[in-house]
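Figure-free illustration: sequence to structure, shown twice.
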Amino acid sequence: MKRNIKKPLCITLCTLLLAGSIGIAAHAAVPNEKNFGTAAASNGTAGLNSLNSDMLAATAPSASTGSPLSDAYEQNSKTETVYVFASASGEVHKIIVSDWIHNPLGSDTLTDSSTLGSVENVKGDETYTVNEAGLRVWDAKGNDIYCQGTTDSELPVSVSVSFSLDGVPVSAEELAGKSGRVKIRFDYINKCSETVEIDGKKEDIHVPFAMLTGVLLDGDVFSNVEVSNGKLVNDGDRIIAAGLAFPGLQENLGIDSEKLKIPNYVEITADAKNFKLTNTVTIAANELFNNIDSSKFDDIDSLKSSMTELSDSMTALTDGSSALYDGLCTLLEKSDELAAGIDALAEGAAQLKAGAQSAAQGAESLCGGADALAAGLAQIDSGSASLNNGAEQIFNSMLANANAQLAAAGLDIPALTIENYAQVLNAVIAQLGGNAPAIEQLKAQLDSYNAFYTGLQSYTAGVGSAKQGADNLAAGAAQLRDGTGALSTGAGSLYDGILELKNGIPALSDGVSQLRDGAMQLNDGLNELNEKGIQKLIDAVNGDVSSLAARLRATADVSKEYKSFSGLAEGTDGNVKFIYRTESIG
């Protein structure tokens, strides 16, 4: 395949991959910083800036379609994009913030709260004044406002880049033009957190930013490239290394790194010849956690409360059976104190009766919690079809884009579908032989998404199975509730019988002996049930599952509160993303 066909095909596929990974919409107005996000076309070649421009174009919202925030709620909102210009090692030189202030109701004026300096309108002739409260009041004339300004405020996440050559740390300047085994490491430090209360304790929860870093590597300079926490795309002439990290999320969720390591860095290693590197781009956004409905965790809290009641009930029940056994032993061993022993027995029976009643109440609460859990899973299961349909739409979109690229390449082949793409592309690869690396790369991208698509279908099927299990649990809890009701009735009858025993002591010595043995077995059985069954169930609900759910809910809530970097006026909704660009080397 010709180079001028292969190059745009690769760039388009990689742009879709990077943009689709986190669902970020880039601001339509690019700041006026030289060479940032603009094409650097020269003699048919393009650098990383061209890729940046393609990414912005592919993900930019159309002004004609409006904003999801403003359209959904019919309130003013602000979409903010923060452009960070940094040295090759990540030292910040300049910050430019582009704001899109949405005006869904076509108001004559818009009020904006912002810490930016040197603010200018970049798309229209609307002007602003500053009121007594220090707020900017734009003469909007019914229009949206597109403006930008500068700031030196501390960023919520810092990005630092370090380099080594053959295992020895070097600076960016020292690395230029050198050859050897090179390591480029991006470290992210999350500096933005809020103090919240989780399970009665004060905890610092970071705003959960997803950091997506992309680096374009010249195939004439770099070979044997590897990337940690990311993936590579190679079109033969150049290599795109893309990595994803979540700084602070490990601490937010309190997960042992020995069990699961959540990445907080991206590292690229390669063999380099006469090292040089284009600008790198990192996108930071917290939109991933904004889509989590934290109210879904209420069912877990309800179930946890039911487990506490069940634990208290089981404790009362085992205490009652123990007291009953002790009373029977005393009665049998001290016949001359039989009356006193019967009194103790009656007291134990009363405790057993109260414990059985408490157990019945706990079982009723457990039944309600199980029903709530089943209902929650049913609600999640009801969304599985939409999730599968959405994944299928993305797959079909990727196939449509691939069909367009293949048609532009002059290949007359059947239209690619989910069912036939592998067979069709294998036939094309076999026909083109050694001239088909881009087709092989296209198939690899589709195979990768197909694996995700198939896994998603398995996940939604698993949700259905979990729903069935929850329904069975609810049915079992109902049976337990009915059984504990019968137990409570039986305990009441036992108590009444013991009162009759007290009045007929002389004739019941043999019966007391048998009753003692039965009480011992009952006590042992209840203790075993409590230790091996009930307590393990309680520990599971109150342990890792409950803690993780609470931390995940806190993380989602903190994320939804972070809506702007430079400020929002009262009553204004917003969202923000950060784009970091480092200087080139060599």
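We now fold a second protein in the same way, so the two outputs can be compared directly.
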Amino acid sequence: MPVTIDARGLACPQPVIMAKKAIEENRQITVLVDNDMAVENIRRLALKMACGFSVTEKEGGIRNISLVRTGAIDEAERGRGPSARENELSCAAVTGKETGPLVVVLSDNHMGRGDDVLGDILIRSFVHTLLQLKPRPDTVICYNSGVRLAVKDSAVLDDLQQLAKDGVDILVCGTCVNYFEIGDQVAAGHISNMYDIAEAMAGAGRLLRP
């Protein structure tokens, strides 16, 4: 019998955190959720952890998600352990270079404090410049009013879409999108959750914040 996790009514990122913990401890689980964002977050978790994934919609908008682990969970899938982080830091100290992914954090739709018009010009220039960086960022995170940069009428939409085409993972905070009521306007990257955002930031070799 699969373990059943009732995540109905829980805010992001609780459903995906509960699902991750449960699938690490059990070969098969069932997760009950009541919104599309939770389904998508758990689908990405299943992909990341190489689990079988299926979803069935029940009465009242309840989604019944089944995850089946197809192999052993190794330390990389569980998350970076202390020993791995210590090794990474030791390596960085020897080479003089930071190791790990380059993560860009966009927490505002302007750059800097002061004049908003100037800040708008600066953020356009900054995002466009990301296309010229070598190597390119591994991940771009948009949260708070930074999610407005990823919507249809954004001045930097073309640049963000090009980054995504080039393989950059663009995470758009789902809680922030819901707060601003712009979920149907997001046109770059994918709506994500705080667990994935925190994981990306924690695993970064370098964090770049304009």
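Summary for the second example: Residues 76 and 84 are 9 Å apart (CA to CA).
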